[in-house]
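User: Hello, can you help with two protein structures?

Assistant: Certainly.
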Amino acid sequence: MGGGHECPMELWAILPELVVAGFGLVLVPVAGWARGRVRLIPIWASIVGLVIAMGLTVRMLPWEPMAVFCETYAVDGFGTVFKLILEAGALVTLLICLGYFKNHPLIAHAPLAVMFSTLGCMGLASCLDLGLIVLFLQMLSLASYLLVGLVRDDPLSNEATLKYFIYAAAALAIMAYGLTFLYGLTGSLNLNRIGALLNTGDAGVWIALAMGLILVGYAFEMTVAPFHFWAPDVYQGTTAPMAGFLSAVPKVAAFAGLLRLFLSIFPEGLPGWPTGIAIIAAATMILGNLAALRQKRLKRLLAYSSIAQAGYILMAVAVSAYTGGALDAVGFYLAVYLFMNLGAFTVAAQLERTVGTDSLSALQGVGRISPWPSAVLTLCLLSLAGVPPLSGFAGKILLLTAAMDGGLVWLAVVGVINMTVAIYYYVAVIAQLYMRPLSPEAVPVQTGLYYHVSIGICLAGSVVFGVFPGWLLALTRFLPKMVH
C-alpha cells in the first residue's frame, strides 16, 4: 500500500469474519476423518461459530464508520447489517442440513462449504478494494461449486456443477476486466479514492463501460436478466438445502457488494444509472414471472421466482443514490426474502427427501396428511407473493415507494403488474396442496426436530416482520452509515 507506511493489523475490526474462518479451517481435517455420530461435530461446531459471529456482529452496530487495514475494509452500519443477514441465512441453512443429511456422510462436509461461502459473502459486503472484491467473489464462488456438486454420484448434480462453473468463470472474468478499467482510469484500488478521482475527470464513456462490465459479475450472483439462465438448472440439479442457500445468501452478498461499490464511487449518483438499472429490473421481473408460470417442479418454480424477486429489489437499487429510503427498502426486503425463500426450500427439501422428487404433482393433496409443512409452504409462498399482512407485503410496499420517490413511476407500475401475475403460480402450488384429491401413492412428508426449528424460524421471519415491520426497520436504519 502506497507510501511505505506500515499497515496496522486491526484484527479487532474483523472478529466475526475471523470466527467464521477459524471454525471453518479447524473443521477441515475433522470432516475428513469423522465417522458415525462424530460426523455431527462439524455441523454443530459451525452452528456455534455462526452464533458467536452473530453476537460479535450485533456488538458492532453502534460503532462509528471507519476504514481499517489501510482503508481496504469498512467497519460500518451498512456492512454490519448485511453481515447479520448473511450469518442468519447460513445458520438456517445448517439447521436444514441437519434434517436433510441425517445419517448421511455428507453431513460432515456440507457445513464447511457453507462457512467458507458465507465468509466470502461477508467480505464482499465490507471490502473497499478492487483486489479484495475479486478475492471474496472467488471465495464465494469456489465454495458454491462444492455445494452444488455435493452429491458426487448424481449425474444431475455433476451437470449443474459444470454449468455453474462455466457461467461463473465467464461472468467473473468479465467483471474483473471491468475493474481493471477503474484502476486504469485512476491508478487506485480504493473505492473512495477512485470516486474522488473520477469526479474530477472527464471519462464518461469509459466509466459507463467499466460499470457495465462490473455489473455482469454482480448480476450473475443476483440472478438478474440476462445473466439468470444458470439458476433453474443449478437449483434443480443440486440438493434442496443447497439450492435454498444459493438462492438467498450469495444473492444478498451480491446486492450488498454492488451497492457498496456504486455508492462509494458515485455517492451523488451516476447519469443514466437509474434508467439502465430500471430497464434491467423490468426485464428481470417479466422474464422470471413468465417462465415461472410454466414450471412443473417446485425447485425450478422457486428458481424463476427468485429471478423475479431480484427484479423487484432492483427497483430500489436504481434510485439508491437519490432516495433516502431506498437502502432501507433493499435491506428490509433482502432480510425477509431470505426467510421466505429458505422456508419454501426447506419444505422442498422435506418433499425431496420423503418421495425422491420435487414435482408439483407430488404435492397433490399433501395438505391433508402433512398440515404443518403445507401451512409453512403456503405462508412462505403468500409472503413471496406480497399478500398482507405478511412480511413480503411490507417489503414490496417499501420497494415500490422507493421507486416512485425516485421518479420511476413507470417501473413501479410494471412491478405491480408483475406482482399480480406472480400470485397465479404461487396460488397454483397452494391449490395442489389443498384443492386436489390425495394421490394413492402419497405419503406424509417427513419431519423432525431440526426441520421444525428451521421452518419455525423461516415462518417467524415471513410473518412477524409484516405485522411489526418497525422491528426490522430499526435494524435497517444503520444501512446509510457508510464509510465515505
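That covers the first. Now for the second protein you mentioned:
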Amino acid sequence: MLSRSSHDDSLIGHIPLTRITTILVTLLFMASALPGADRPSISTSTSMPADWTMVVTTLGGEKHEGTLIRWKSPDGLVLRDVLGSSIEIGLNELDQIHVKGVVAATAFGDWELTLNDGGRLLGCVVGQDDESVRFRCPAIGETTWPIEAIGQITRRGGSAIKSAMDGDRVLLRNGDEIRGTVSVVDEKGVVVVGEDGESDEPLNWSSVMAVQFRVTNQRNAGMSPGFCIRLIDGGELVASSIEWRDGVFLLTTGDQQAMRVESSQVEWIESSNSARAWLSNVPPVRQESIPFFSTDWPLRKDVNAAGGRLGIAGVTYGRGLGMHSACRVTWRLEGQYSRLTGLVGIDDSGGPLAHADFLIRAGSVVLYEAKALRWGEPARSVDLDVKDLAEITIEVGFGRNGDVQDRVNFVDAALRK
C-alpha cells in the first residue's frame, strides 16, 4: 500500500491501477532503448588550453575573461585580457572562476568519500596506511587521508547515514548495520571491532553500502575553508588557501593538508561568501522519502537523484539538489535570509514518462508551485521572499505516472541575505 502524508496539501496522491499497468508495459518495451546514463566510466581526457584562460565572475555579476597571471591567497588574482591589460580582482570581490576549455570527465569507481571539511571525492579505496586511507580518483590520482578527516565512505547512488557520536558504523546492502570501531579499510573491504573487543569477519566491499566514522568534537577545530574546487570528475575539494603556479593549483585543504591539483583537472573554483548560502550546503532538519512501490530515493547534494551530473534541458549545473518523487524536506532558516532563488526541472537522465509536481511552502502557506514538470522542458525559475521565515519545506509529488523517471532537480538553489 502506498504511504500517504497526513497533510491536506500534500502533492502525493493515488494512481489508478489501470495507469500503473500501462506504465509497466511501456517500461518493458523501453527498457532496451533507455541509456544507462548513470553507470560510471573512465575518461582520460585532460586537455587544457596552453594559455590557462579563466572566466572570473564577481559577486556583483561582472565577468572577466583572460589569462591567469597570478593568484595567491589572500592577495587576490590578476588576469591579462585579450588587449593585454591587467585586471586585478580581490578575494572579497570573487564569486566563481571557470577554467575555460576543460572537458568534464565521468567519474569512475563505485564510492564517494566524504571529508569532514565538506569535500568529497569519487573513486575507490586502494589501501590503508596505519591511521590513513588511500583513495584513488581520476582527477587527482591517489591521495591519502587520515581517518579522522573522513566523515564517511558511501556507495555512489546510495543514501548517507546519519552522524553518530558513539562509534563507527557500517551499513550493509541487505539493510543490516554493524556498530563498533572500524579497524581496517583497504582495497578488499572493512573490518569492525565490536564493543566486546572481538573483530568481526572481514566485510567485502560488495556487501557494503556505507561506512561512517565516529564524529569527534576535535575534527573540525580551527578550520576556515574559503574555496570550493570542483574537479572535472564531479568531486570537490575545500581549501582555506590557494596559490596558482605554472599551471598547478597549490591548495591547503580544510583539514590543513597541502595538495597539488593540475589546472587541467579543475572545472571551476568558488569563493565562500557570507552573502549567499547554497541550499545543498545547508543540512535539512527533516526529510522523508515516500516510495511509490518500494524504491527509497535519497536526497542528493550537487548531483541528480541517481548520482550523476545535474542537467535540465541540455544545460548542466554544478550546484543543486537531486530529488525524486515523492519526498518532503525541511530546512530551518531562522529568519537569516531574504530570498530563495533557483531553477527547477526534470533531470536529463530521466525520460519521457517523467511527470512530477514541485512545491515550496512555509508551514501551511504555499510559496511556490510548479505543476506537471516534464522531461526536456526548460527549467522554471524560482525567486521567493523568505525574509523572517523560520522554516521552508520542499515537496516533490507523484505525477500521473507515479514515480517513473521523476528525477527532479532544484539547481542553483541559493539562500541570499
